[in-house]
Amino acid sequence: MDLNFIPLAFGQILSPLTVGYALAALGLAVHFGFTGLLNFGQAGFMAVGGYFFAITTVKFDWPLWASLIACVVGAILFALLLGIPTLRLRADYLSIVTIAAAEIVRYTVKTPSISNLTGGSDGINGSSRDFYRLNPLPDIRYGYGVLSYNNNEVWSMIVGWTVVIVAAVLVWQLMRSPWGRIVKGIREDEDAVRSLGKNVTWYKMQSLILGGVLAALGTVLVIIPTSLQPDNYGTQTTFFLYTIVLLGGATTVLGPIIGSIIFWVVLSLSDGILTLLVSNHLLPITSVQQGPIRFIIVGIALMLLVIFRPQGIFGKKREAHFSG
Amino acid sequence: MTLAGTAPRRKTRWFVVIFAALAASAFVFSSAGTAFAADTPTPTPSASTAAAQSIGVWVRVAADKSNVAGVKVTITGPKGFNSAVVTGADGKATVPLDKPGTYKVALDASSIPAGAGAVLGTNPRDVSVGVGNQGVPAYFLLGSAATTPSPGSTAKPSPGSTSSGTSFGELALQRVATGLIFGLLLALASIGVSLIYGTTGLNNFAHGELVTFGALVGYIVSGTMHLPGWLGILAALVFGGVFGYLQDLGLWKPLRKRGVGLIPLMIVSIGLSLALRYIYQFVFGPGLLVTPSDNSSFLTLGPVHLRFTDVSSPVVCIVVLLLVAFALLRTRIGKATRAVSDNRSLAAATGINVERVIRIVWVAGGALAGLSGALIGYYQPINWETGGSILLLIFAAVTLGGLGTAFGALIGSLVIGLLVDLSTLFIPSNMKFVAALAALIVILIFRPQGILGRRDRIG
Q: Which residues cross the membrane (chain A) (predicted)?
């Protein structure tokens, strides 16, 4: 019986995927948890950031810093495009437009006629070039047993978690600032904040931009050690992020990060256990049927979380009304 | 705002809508109705093929995309492989192959019926078949020699590609027809979304899964149980309604009782959508499912051959939509539904049983979505995310028409259907949804309440 999946699952704690989802979830917490924006298109922000970064790096040969700026600019433009028509309307409109826009980004980058730019359905490889060149670590193996990494993987993890910590501190400080109080006020009662003379739409836009940029940077940290695949940014990614955010606590800074770790460890463990059961014929399903199970689990977990514990692990009950 | 005060004004609007729907149907019949067949040339790998590989031959007339039966096709390949097939009534023939490799597919020019013209493009043609490839397309178009052969005609003609021998005007007319049919199918699903939104305030992000459910019911009944098609459609209608009822009974009603807010409810609906979508994939697998339909010509109008599906689906849609309109306008429960949509508390205060109305709306919404799914199954192969992929079009249609207004959903659907299909004349078909999103953004900037919506709903 092969039990390697257990250490591998706990290896997810540090993996680039966890880093990327932690950042994107933090962005979603800024949108949904702190500001009350119902953004169902966080996957779209991730895809836009990823493509702006990968295209400028791989196709245009821009240096790392320029590509990072391009990635941030892309996320800001996307936020403006979605925010301008919808933020002055009720919460539903933002959710409809964002979920539609995220899918459309995915369809568009897969269009064959622009595949020399976007790589079509295959996505883009090799955006790690400049990033690995900055790697100061010696080229040896790090880690123990099945959890063994080369110097580039360790470099990605170090940079990734540094970015997550910096972003978390930034969001934490922002939410303690006057800006954060206004934004949280918008979540609780938009009209009250408006009556204090604040430009609610503009604050919402700032929040949308901030969260979107975090998601875009998160994607960069995922695609550098792996690759950019358009189908990784479908609606299910947004729903994963909601599960992560609600798991940890949408109105907290630590919640999305811990949520991301728990999410990927649990998902990886359940995949491992399923594989074990299926390969030993303990479950009457085929290996093709094994794939959808994780999504079914996440979907049901999301429903149960939002119904029975909307404040998540770390959140406060009174902050988790989301009356909209 | 009371119901009595708005009724006359709204009634005139609704007549406009109904007229538009009828005009649409007339248009569909007078123009190229087989265009839908051209839209979905996915090869149907025949289930009887036991071989590991196969080539799918399809012979059609370039001008009207009608299928050509009785054409002899010879396939020669490595190691002396030689096989001859004759296309069936649907213009198709499947050639089972034991080995992968490059095969030469030749149409016997003498077997082409008189009047169909000659083969456009290369003939014979080399088709390379990889390991395990089923139904590798070898599609031939026939036409008069004057028309230019389309480049690379082995590629499957996508909705966005310009077929040879078809002028821009004819193509636009075809797109109008397909767009209207698609709009009608979309309308069936959208009305449910709009009514559920109107009566409960919930944006149901799991509505696409109701559509998929109907499509799967249709597939089970007529695809695997080999019962007649109308039974499949009826079953989708009935089971869709049952599914909607059970969803409301088991999930949404208890949540309303708990007083869960609307935003958590929307998140519940995305969780439900994710779970249902992958339950479908778990049960039916990730592949495409083809509901068998009779592709033979049912009605011939001049050069245009209409399949039975092309005629029956729009008729079914229009009849059902008229019934819904009648129910909303003339019956007690319809009036109650509109009253609840207008103002829930006021309706409750006048003695309307709001919970009962909501239950009926869920049943009707589920049934209409199921019907829409089953009809979609006759036009194109379905899979586990068929409904999910049109969800954004449903939302675009509902928002365009005005959230919460049933007739707005109808108009919005027709507009979105037309827009999406006509946009493929100018942009690649993968990007056709961009047109729908652009329309959505424009309407939200200039008229956020939608075409038929009221200003006070949006703030």
A: 6-30, 37-58, 64-84, 154-175, 208-228, 291-308
Partners of residue A103 in chain B, C-beta under 8 Å: 389, 392, 433
**Tokens at residue B406, please?**
């049933």
DSSP string for A56-87: IIIIT---HHHHHHHHHHHHHHHHHHHHHHHT
Q: Which domains are assigned to chain B?
A: 3-36+172-457 (1.10.3470), 53-155 (2.60.40.10)
Cβ of B254: how many Cβ atoms within 10 Å? Answer: 12
Indicate yes or no: CB of A324 within 8 angstroms of CB of B262.
yes
Distance CA B268, CA A304 (A): 8
* Chain B residues with CB-CB distance to A104 below 8 A: 392, 433-434, 437
> B53 and B25 in contact (C-beta within 8 Å)?
no
Are the beta carbons of A299 and B285 separated by less than 8 Å? no
Please report the domains of chain A, with CATH numbers, ordered by start residue. 5-319 (1.10.3470)
Q: What is the ipTM of this complex?
A: 0.88
Distance CA B94, CA A261 (A): 51
Q: Considering the entire predicted model, what is its pTM?
A: 0.77
SS3 B409: helix
Cβ <8 Å between B264 and A90: no
Q: Say which of B270, B434, B444 has its CB closest to residue A86.
A: B444
CB contact B266 to A (< 8 Å) = yes
B249-290 pLDDT, tens digit per residue, is: 999 999 999 888 888 899 999 999 999 999 999 999 888 888
